[in-house]
Amino acid sequence: MERQQWKKIWVGSAGNMVEWFDWFVYASFSTYFAASFFPSGNPTAQLMNTAGIFAVGFFMRPVGGWLLGRVGDRKGRKAALTLTVSLMSASAVLIAIAPTYGVAGYGGAAVLLIARLLQGLSVGGEYAASATYLTEASDPSRRGFASSFQYVSMTAGQILGLGLQILLQRTMSDDALHSWGWRIPFIIGALGAAVIFYLRRNMLETEVYEESADDTAADDKGTIKTLLQHKREAFLVIALTMGGTVAYYTYTTYLTKYLSNSAGLPKQTATLVSFCALIVFACLQPLAGMLSDRIGRRPLLITFAVGSTFLTVPIMTLLQHAGSFWPALGLSLLALVVVTGYTSINACVKAELFPTGIRALGVALPYAIANALFGGTAEYVALWFKDGGIESGFYWYVAGCAAVSLIVYLTMRETKDLDLNKVGKKAGKEQASASSQEISRVG
């Protein structure tokens, strides 16, 4: 890769890392601040309240996907990426200063909710803007490798969050963490977002976007009307995301809680398991991305779906009885190796489906809808099954979602060799032709 391409990938990935650090520390530190915002009582009930607010953030992601996807297609990928990190910084500040239940009653939970809504807006646009930027900025023969850094950076954000949690667990008392120590990661996240805002203001726009400036009429870029001309592709994004996002959030965001709340491991051990597993997981992403550049995207997606469909129930069952660090780590790694078939390439697959003038919105809105329905609710669904005494039902739910996506992977086209410039120009010509025919009929 050329130096400029590496620079684009680095800036896009670094921003994505901070975005997802802020997004994930809410989940990883919720065991410490759940009691600060809700009345004392059943710990599982308190976690369900914080998980519910976590899920609400996901339901803002379609709004963020629409708003920021529109910005990305009309004003450029750089403009959208700069706006997303600004929203994330504001939300981190709100969580860091939110008053507790003892100070403001449910007012603190209201501040927490507002912050999560802002985070939902931000991440709803961040995924698509980042996926589009990384895909367009790379060499056509290495799009799988380049776009894999989206999940490298997402996972790096979570690794940093878990690493900070381990550090605080070892240097602060449990009482201090529950009292005020949980605010520290949100302060760090806000500062990190400010740094990334500066970097993104000086980032370079992708050549694919600049070269396509005349391919789509300005009024048609980033609009729902134009997106509806690609209904099949939009449905594909929702369907192929369904299984992957549930599996991803199960084995990353929810894993630490599951190991401590269900498997009975100490919080420190559960955090360390997740931390070590995610380091390996991040290293696997570029390797799988490179493999997809050679053999195609579909083989990796199909491998993920088959593995997740048939291995989820035994892996989750064994994890519940792991008992110690090494068995839990081994099972977690097995699950994340399977998930890599989806995470490493899903960003470029979605971006490769759409023309340039609608690519950001085409990825953002359907993906955000799928995450709101399946990814954001995964943790809440898991806790709901647990609270109802049928926790194993969640395992079958995850496997079932993967099975649905498997059907899509088996029937979709291969996208590895598509020319992003020609996809956009072809769509533009078809639209122009349709407009000409309409004028002729009117005449």
TrEMBL record:
Keywords: Cell membrane, Membrane, Symport, Transmembrane, Transmembrane helix, Transport. It comes from the Bacteria. The chain crosses the membrane at residues 20-38, 50-68, 104-128, 180-199, 234-251, 271-288, 300-319, 325-345, 357-374, 394-412. Its main location: membrane. Belongs to the major facilitator superfamily. Metabolite:H+ Symporter (MHS) family (TC 2.A.1.6) family. It comes from Streptomyces monticola. CDD domains: MFS_KgtP. Residues 8-416 form the Major facilitator superfamily (MFS) profile domain. It is a multi-pass membrane protein. This is MFS transporter. It is found in: Cell membrane. Coiled coil: none annotated. PANTHER family: ALPHA-KETOGLUTARATE PERMEASE, PROLINE_BETAINE TRANSPORTER. InterPro entries: H+-coupled_symporters, MFS, MFS_dom, MFS_trans_sf, Sugar_transporter_CS.
